[in-house]
Specification:
mainly alpha, 48% helix
Length: 389
């Protein structure tokens, strides 16, 4: 007879006032009660529990949600999904879960507890809590739902308390979803003029970064793709550029800390692409090359610093902020808006959505359509205004 059977057979079982039987035992230092309509049912439940404990199972009332999420991230996500996706999940854990419901024992979690957190981030009761838009609320569910599903699969909990959580409607959330917008044709010309501005004393351009930013605008690159772009990726003779890698920034490492890594492919399979170069883009490339020769800059990277090291997204955003101020554009323009402007301009000029999708490296045409639905609707409204009927 094995040790589990011995423990279970020594368990005292009594009949309760409600007609059920109850047995109690201490298994691996944990005191536990089991219930059933017969003594045999109670013993079977106790035996199954003790077997799990022998195999490393921990009672859900002894595991915090934080402990399980950290285990789940390392076991089921690290090196199994894109580093950027892993980093996003970990960021949600660190900022929205760790110091809130994460400190609760996983076995005590309820749907109402998770719903309360969602509602609190949707409409904070304190100024100390940063309100989240709908996309941020969805990310909380996208972390908790699969994590707790796995906890069910591993017999840690009986059911997933996140399964029935309800996301509030858009008009019931404090922070609205960011409105998608792009630069107008006039603003594009203003930005170009600012990028071409020179010092009167030396005749040198104010900013090398300005022409890097114009490349993002003209090629529709993601910031990670721009930072990873090397001079060898350009084939000027055939007037094309190969987009085949990206920089993944602030990726959390297993031993702690964050770093940036070069991924030897683009964000998606469709992200690996070849983009034709027009005369304007070749002018930007030539201008950058000439600038580097004049200033003794030697670097394999197109987006580089004055000493040739790879530039950063933060530095490029700072340069963009200065150029936008100099251009007197009264909008907050991010690096992503430059990419979004590229797609918007193509659609406004009548380029088919399937072509835009391919040039931007989207995984499928639906993504492109959803991102540019506002531009498509604007163009449709213009068409209706022109109709003679």
């Amino acid at each position: 007879m094995d040790n589990v059977s011995t423990i279970v057979n020594q368990m005292k079982i009594k009949k309760r006032s409600d007609g059920r039987y109850e047995g109690r035992l201490t298994c691996n230092g944990t005191r536990k009660s089991f219930y059933g309509t017969t003594k045999t049912e109670v013993k079977n439940k106790a035996k199954a529990y003790c077997k799990k404990v022998e195999n490393g199972y921990r009672d859900p009332e002894k595991i915090t949600l934080n402990e399980y999420i950290e285990y789940w991230l390392v076991t089921y996500k690290l090196n199994k999904i894109e580093l950027s996706s892993y980093n996003r999940l970990n960021s949600v854990y660190e900022h929205q879960i760790k110091n809130t419901i994460g400190q609760n024992m996983i076995g005590t979690l309820s749907t109402s507890m998770i719903q309360e957190i969602i509602d609190e981030y949707a409409n904070p009761s304190s100024t100390e809590i940063r309100a989240l838009a709908l996309s941020g609320l969805k990310k909380i569910v996208q972390l908790l739902n699969p994590c707790l599903n796995m906890a069910v699969e591993e017999d840690i909990i009986l059911y997933n308390p996140c399964a029935k959580v309800i996301l509030p409607k858009e008009n019931c959330i404090t922070t609205p979803t960011k409105e998608q917008y792009s630069l107008t044709d006039t603003e594009i010309e203003q930005l170009k003029k600012a990028c071409y501005k020179k010092y009167k004393s030396s005749g040198e351009y104010y900013s090398r970064d300005g022409f890097v930013l114009l490349l993002i605008l003209s090629l529709g690159l993601r910031i990670g793709e721009m930072l990873a772009l090397e001079w060898q990726d350009f084939d000027i003779a055939n007037r094309i550029v190969h987009i085949n890698k990206t920089i993944q920034s602030n990726v959390k490492q297993k031993g702690g800390g964050y770093r940036s890594t070069v991924k030897k492919s683009a964000k998606t399979r469709a992200g690996v692409r070849v983009i034709p170069l027009n005369d304007q883009i070749i002018e930007y490339i030539t201008t950058l090359r000439d600038y580097d020769k004049r200033n003794g800059i030697h670097s394999p990277y197109v987006a580089c610093t004055g000493v040739g090291t790879r530039n950063t997204a933060r530095n490029l955003q700072r340069s963009l902020d200065r150029l936008v101020r100099n251009a007197e554009i009264e909008k907050h323009i991010t690096l992503h808006i430059l990419r979004h402007t590229f797609g918007s301009v193509l659609i406004r000029r009548g380029v088919g959505i399937e072509v835009v999708s391919k040039l931007m490296g989207h995984a499928n045409i639906t993504i492109t359509y959803n991102k540019y639905i506002h531009v498509i609707q604007e163009e449709e409204a213009k068409a209706m205004n022109l109709t003679p009927i």
